[in-house]
Amino acid sequence: MDNAHWNDFALGIGCPMDAPRPRSTDDWDFVAELTASSLYLATNQTYRGHCQLIFDRRHVARVDQLSPEEWQAMAADLFRAQAAIVEAVRPDHMNIETLGNIVPHLHWHIVPRYRTDPRWGAPIWLTSLADMKVTRLPPAERDGLIHDLRAALASGV
Ligand SMILES: [Zn+2]
C-alpha cells in the first residue's frame, strides 16, 4: 500500500479495505465473516496466527467514528477472533493493534506472540524501544493534561 493515498483513503476514496474486498490478496486470506467485521489470515506469518480483523459495515478510519452499537459489535468480534486464534495457535501472549498508518480503515492486527519470536519483549513494529524518542512534559502541563482527561471521562465524552 502507498502512503501517497493516505488522505484519500482516510476519506473513504478508493479505500482498499472497504467491503466488498477480495477474499485473497498479497496481504491476506479470508478466514470468516463475523458480526461487524471479517477475519483474514495475514500472508506474513512471522508471528504464526497473525490475523487482521477488518470492519465491514462502512468506511471508518478509527474507533471513535463508530456508533456505540457498531463498537459493541466490533469489540465482540475482536473477543471471538482473539479466542479463536489463541485456541488455534496456543501463543505465549497476544498483541492487539489498530494502527491505520498505511490504510486508515478500521482494522485490528491480532498478533500471537511467542517467547521464541524475533521481537519477544517488544512490539513487532519498526524500532526498538531504545531507539524511540523520549518526551516528558513539565509537571504542570502533565497535571493539567491528567485533569483534562479526567474531566472528559467524567463528562461522558
Ligand atoms: Zn475504508
Keywords:
157 residues, alpha+beta, 5-stranded antiparallel sheet, 3 helices, globular, binds zinc ion
What would you say this structure looks like, in words?
With 157 residues, this protein is α+β, with helices and mostly antiparallel strands. The chain contains 3 helices and 5 strands; from the N terminus they run H-E-E-E-H-E-E-H. The protein has helices at residues 6-10, 68-89, 139-154; strands at residues 28-33, 37-42, 51-55, 93-97, 107-113. Strand 2 (37-42) and strand 3 form a beta hairpin. The longest helix is centred in the middle third of the chain and has 22 residues, at 68-89. It is globular and about 50 Å long.
Unreliable runs: none
Q: H/E element string?
A: HEEEHEEH
Mean pLDDT: 90
Proportion of residues in helical segments: 25-40%
Structural class: alpha+beta
Strand residue content? 15-25%
| Order of strands in the sheet with most strands | 1-2-3-5-4
Question: So how many helices?
Answer: 3
Report, as a whole number of angstroms, the end-to-end distance: 34 Å
Which outline best applies? globular
Number of strands: 5
Overall radius of gyration: 18 Å
Bound small molecules, by name, code or SMILES, are: zinc ion
User: Largest beta sheet, briefly?
Assistant: 5 strands, antiparallel
